[in-house]
């Protein structure tokens, strides 16, 4: 009985707990039981917290028994990416350097979610410091994609995506410095939102200079919700969004009613669609599935759809330079000297590179150019649609395919649709668009104008109504594929 509740969305679960139909402890115990059953296959967690979860659930039930009002996430099981700090709970960032690190404070987002009465099931695995679009790291087993256990769930919010797809929880917290919420959302067949830069404050991640590696990516990183329904992400945003003095980039959110935006009228939209941005090598199944999804979306909304490229060039080198520029190279090089071969090879290679000042300033100039290109392009369109990723999920323990659609490419080329919108800070989401012939999920990216988060959520919710996805479940977790 209680196990079946875990297939409900967070909005429904919170209402049931708030109404007394089920207790938070019953739901939490069911989640723990399911985790014990399915986690050995999925390997989503690096640090499970069942005892803490039951304590938090008991506190929620006690609060209700006293007649107090429960928060928006009353008793809902939550998982948190291991790059995001949790007070009293180990936060390793996937690195031997932080293997025993226990933060003294929660990240702002965790603080807010727990204050809204969410229950923490544990921390989910991520690559070392998040410097990868997949999930393997030197400390823990690689998370596996529930749709095919031999495949990656994507990253860097790898375990969060895998836990959601395996239905171990209804909501997850990820972070996105170059696509790391949208990537696993696409590969795992769930919804992920990167809100506009500053909507969700960050601290101490990316901000606290005491922690090399953890303090990287300041102008690129976003923390965002990952859920099985769009409404649940809106619910999480209603809790997490809003300024905080600890994050100098954080902005007010009075212009967005996160839940009401789901019903926003969408008549008369002008939508741009690009299957490859004019340069990206894209798997033929991805191209076909997303093109059909975009055309169906526009047709059923009665929107105008232009198949047009936004003018974005291949800026993979620019992204790499910006990441290096925003890393504590001195602190991380000291760390590398101590860890040696225990550090991820691709991260060591980045630290060993002899970066030049001009490389960094050129990258910053290019970012400005791209931002200007995009605001000019978006003057003509309300939304931009594209594939989220250039390929379906691929085998574990590789950084990315080096041949796509018959072309030789860099191992990070498959991420090319995502990171430009970390440059610009525009809101961007990934919605499940369909499945390959072999049953692997494919994502469609929905990008909005600067600060138009409400429209991105509204469009995502409309697409979910047109082409629902939450009733389809992976065979690997013991439930038949619809």
UniProtKB/TrEMBL annotation:
<feature type="domain" description="Amidase">
    <location>
        <begin position="26"/>
        <end position="457"/>
    </location>
</feature>
<dbReference type="Pfam" id="PF01425">
    <property type="entry name" value="Amidase"/>
</dbReference>
<dbReference type="InterPro" id="IPR000120">
    <property type="entry name" value="Amidase"/>
</dbReference>
<protein>
    <submittedName>
        <fullName>Amidase</fullName>
    </submittedName>
</protein>
<comment type="similarity">
    <text>Belongs to the amidase family.</text>
</comment>
<dbReference type="InterPro" id="IPR036928">
    <property type="entry name" value="AS_sf"/>
</dbReference>
<dbReference type="InterPro" id="IPR023631">
    <property type="entry name" value="Amidase_dom"/>
</dbReference>
């Amino acid at each position: 009985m209680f196990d079946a509740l875990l297939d409900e969305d967070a909005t429904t679960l919170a209402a049931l707990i708030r109404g007394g139909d089920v207790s938070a402890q019953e739901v939490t115990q069911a989640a723990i039981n399911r985790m014990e059953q399915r986690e050995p296959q999925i390997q989503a967690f690096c640090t499970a917290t069942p005892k803490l979860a039951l304590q938090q659930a008991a506190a929620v039930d006690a609060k209700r028994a006293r007649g107090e009002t429960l928060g928006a996430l009353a008793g809902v099981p939550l998982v948190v990416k291991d790059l995001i700090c949790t007070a009293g709970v180990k936060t390793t960032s996937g690195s031997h350097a932080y293997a025993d690190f226990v933060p003294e404070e929660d990240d702002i987002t965790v603080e807010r979610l727990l204050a809204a009465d969410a229950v923490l099931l544990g921390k989910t695995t991520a690559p070392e410091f998040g410097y990868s679009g997949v999930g393997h790291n030197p400390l823990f087993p690689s998370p596996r994609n529930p749709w095919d256990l031999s495949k990656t769930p994507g990253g860097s919010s790898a375990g969060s995506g895998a836990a959601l797809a395996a239905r171990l929880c209804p909501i997850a917290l990820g972070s996105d410095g170059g696509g790391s919420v949208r990537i696993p959302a696409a590969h795992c067949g769930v919804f992920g939102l990167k809100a506009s830069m500053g909507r969700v404050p960050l601290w101490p991640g990316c901000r606290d200079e005491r922690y090399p590696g953890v303090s990287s990516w300041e102008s690129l990183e976003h923390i965002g919700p990952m859920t099985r329904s769009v409404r649940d992400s809106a619910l999480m945003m209603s809790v997490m969004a809003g300024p905080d003095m600890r994050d100098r980039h954080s902005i007010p959110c009075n212009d967005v009613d996160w839940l009401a935006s789901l019903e926003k009228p969408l008549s008369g939209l002008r939508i741009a669609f690009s299957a490859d941005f004019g340069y990206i090598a894209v798997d033929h199944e991805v191209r076909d599935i997303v093109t059909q999804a975009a055309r169906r979306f526009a047709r059923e909304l009665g929107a105008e759809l232009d198949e047009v490229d936004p003018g974005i060039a291949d800026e993979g080198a620019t992204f790499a330079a910006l990441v290096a520029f925003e890393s504590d190279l001195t602190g991380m090089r000291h760390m590398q000297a101590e860890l040696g071969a225990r550090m991820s090879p691709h991260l060591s290679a980045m630290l060993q590179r002899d970066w030049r000042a001009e490389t960094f300033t050129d990258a910053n100039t290019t970012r400005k150019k791209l931002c200007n290109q995009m605001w000019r392009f978006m003057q003509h369109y309300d939304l931009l649609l594209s594939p989220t990723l250039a390929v379906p999920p691929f085998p574990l323990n590789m950084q990315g395919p080096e041949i796509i659609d018959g072309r030789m490419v860099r191992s990070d080329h498959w991420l090319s649709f995502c990171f430009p919108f970390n440059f610009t800070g525009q809101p961007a989401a990934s919605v499940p668009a369909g499945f390959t012939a072999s049953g692997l999920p494919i994502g469609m990216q929905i990008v909005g104008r600067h600060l138009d988060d409400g429209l991105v959520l509204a469009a995502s919710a409309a697409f979910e109504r047109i082409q629902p996805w939450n009733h389809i479940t992976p065979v690997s977790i013991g439930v038949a594929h619809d």
